[in-house]
Write a structure and sequence with these properties.
Elements lengths: L1 E3 L6 H15 L5 E3 L2 E3 L5 E4 H14 L3 H11 L2 E7 L13 H16 L3 E6 L3 H8 L1 H10 L2 E3 L7 H4 L3
Parallel strand pairs: 1-6, 1-7, 4-5, 5-6
Antiparallel strand pairs: 2-3
Helix pairs in contact: 2-3, 3-4, 4-6, 5-6
This protein binds adenosine-5'-triphosphate (ATP) and magnesium ion.
Amino acid sequence: MGLYGRTGRGKTYGVVAIVKAWTMGAGLRALELNGALVGPWVPTWAPWQRTLARLRGLVRQGGPAFEDALEELCRAPLLVIDDLGSEQAPKVPPGSDWAITEVLTPVLDTRHDAHRATLWTSNLDPIQLTDRYQARIVSRLIGMAPAIEMPVHLPDRRIERGL
Ligand SMILES: Nc1ncnc2c1ncn2[C@@H]1O[C@H](COP(=O)(O)OP(=O)(O)OP(=O)(O)O)[C@@H](O)[C@H]1O
Ligand SMILES: [Mg+2]
């Protein structure tokens, strides 16, 4: 399932609520810090920009670390990709962008085939996501469960609360 819409509308908040319900139902524990879930925890939380930066670092390190991290993203019983599209837009076509071909595609393909749940949030709507990542990725994301738009009339809660 995905939540998309403008900033501050509660997409991350909504997904955190789902993850909490999921972990409680599964008898697991999720730790929370300042409204964000932190480890050790079973659902894998992947703030997308930071996750890609970390993975690039692991590639530079060499050795099996990158493959291990990718495997974790593929195998996590529940994966949350938070803020998909927040990373810098690729300067090359999606078909030759490393983050898309070496990370997003294998992760989503594997998870889709294994029926593992993936939740995601994005400021981009499905049409913009298709422009960014190509239809194949968006088909995997939306094929697994629907994408829901946060109601456009909602206020930006950060501005409202002076955050
Ligand atoms: N239903 C709610 N009740 C109380 N607080 C909320 C609710 N929804 C969101 N908030 C608070 O509003 C702020 C913004 O919400 P959130 O971070 O989920 O927005 P977002 O849509 O993920 O924004 P972005 O696109 O910038 O990531 C957070 O501090 C969050 O705790
Ligand atoms: Mg968010």
